[in-house]
Structures are given as structure tokens and as C-alpha cells.
Design a protein that fits this description.
Layout (H helix, E strand, L loop, with lengths): L2 H19 L27 H5 L11 E2 L1 H5 L6 E6 L4 E6 L2 E7 L12 E4 L2 E3 L4 E9 L5 E7 L10 E6 L3 E3 L6 E4 L12 E3 L1 H10 L5 E5 L1
Parallel strand pairs: 2-13, 11-12
Antiparallel strand pairs: 1-4, 2-3, 3-4, 5-13, 6-10, 7-8, 7-9, 10-11
């Protein structure tokens, strides 16, 4: 074998060796006591909205973002709400900045929340009850049926129907769609309304005024 053939043979061996060595795991470090996993570091400053939305777990379970300085300046003239049905979250904007981002529960598949452009038509803090959905009691005052539909479920003789409470009610349509405090399981679960968690419902109610535009998007 001449020199050229020898160099070619060595070069080919180096190529083959190099191509296979990448797929072979390096020998373990005998001094390593614990297997460490890489951690993702959010590049945005803590407390900022960018830091909140950049988290890998977004959309989060019950996390709420608030910007107190923006909320303090929120008014009918500069506020709007965007409800994202795909993320099951709502955002209050002050001008074009996010003042609050929070989880919601929209209508389930049999009672979907209709996307569209709305505005706040009515606000009732506590004395608001559903006239369609609630609990049926028997003549002795015991629960006969929970999650009842007043248009379909029979009320026993001597019994009565009590509509579900909807605190911090904010009407979006005269057909019955609105926003209110309720159970938020992080998936569509209502009869068409947009539910808010109890820990933020009072804040949303106090910051949103009659006429505030609300956009429901998918």
C-alpha cells in the first residue's frame, strides 16, 4: 500500500469513527452523585407581564397577573377586555397594556359561549340569580335535584326552584350571556356565561364600567 492509499484509508477510518462517536454516550462521571436536569430561565424580569406570559406552563392553572399601577389608572375611557376561549383566560387592557390576566371558564360544548364584540350592559354585585339553572328543593326543603334546568326538570309538589347565585354579574347580552363569579375548573364548564375565580371577581367588577368593550375570541 502506497502513501496515498494509506492516508485515504486513515481518512476514511477517521470519518467513519467520527460519524459513529456522536451517537455513543460518553462514559459516566464517577464523581457525579446526582443527575441534574437543565432548568429553563425566564429572560424577562420577575413581576413583568412578559415574565408571566413567557413561562413554559402557560396557560397556567389558576395564576393571575396583576399590574397595580395600571389597574389604578383603569377607567371606562381606556379599558377593554379580551376573552380567549382557546386559552380559557381573560385579559383586562388599560390602553394597550395588560393590567390583569386571569383564568375563566366559558360555556361547555352544549352551551357554548358565542364569540363576538360586546360591551357591559348591566352590573349587579350580589343580588343576581339565574332564572334557568339552579337547584330544585322538595316540600321539606331538601335538595331534590342540583344543577337543574327550570325549563325541563319537574318541580315536585310543594317544592321550589332556586336559581344559582351569580355574584359580580356583568351582562354582555340581553339573551343571558354575562361574566360572573363561579367555579373555574380550567375548561369550558358553564351554561354560556364566562365565570371568574372568586379571588379576582371583585377586582374585575370594580374596574370594569358600563359600556366597557369586551371581545370574545377563539
Amino acid at each position: 500500500m502506497n502513501l496515498a492509499q494509506t492516508l485515504l484509508s486513515v481518512g476514511l477510518l477517521a470519518v467513519v469513527t467520527g460519524s459513529t462517536s456522536c451517537s455513543v454516550a460518553p462514559p459516566p462521571n464517577p464523581d457525579q452523585k446526582e443527575i441534574l436536569r437543565a432548568q429553563w430561565v425566564n429572560p424577562n424580569p420577575p413581576g413583568s407581564y412578559a415574565h408571566f406570559t413567557a413561562e413554559l406552563s402557560y396557560p397556567k392553572t389558576y395564576s393571575v397577573f396583576r399590574d397595580p399601577s395600571l389597574l389604578a389608572r383603569t377607567s371606562k375611557a381606556n379599558s377593554r377586555i379580551i376573552i380567549d376561549l382557546s386559552l380559557q383566560r381573560a385579559i383586562i387592557f388599560t390602553n394597550d397594556e395588560a393590567a390583569m390576566d386571569y383564568p375563566i371558564a366559558s360555556g361547555k360544548s352544549t352551551f357554548p359561549t358565542p364569540p363576538g364584540k360586546y360591551q357591559i350592559l348591566e352590573k349587579i354585585k350580589s343580588e343576581k340569580y339565574s332564572n334557568l339553572y339552579g337547584t330544585i328543593y322538595d316540600a321539606e326543603g331538601k335538595i331534590h335535584m342540583s344543577n337543574a334546568d327550570a325549563t325541563k326538570d319537574e318541580i315536585p309538589e310543594g317544592g321550589n326552584f332556586k336559581g344559582a347565585s351569580m355574584p359580580y354579574w356583568m351582562r354582555l347580552s340581553w339573551s343571558g350571556i354575562g361574566m360572573h363569579q363561579g367555579r373555574v375548573p380550567r375548561y369550558p364548564a358553564s351554561h354560556g356565561c364566562v365565570r371568574m375565580p372568586s379571588k379576582i371577581a371583585s377586582t374585575v367588577f370594580s374596574k370594569i364600567e358600563m359600556g366597557t368593550p369586551v371581545s370574545i375570541e377563539r
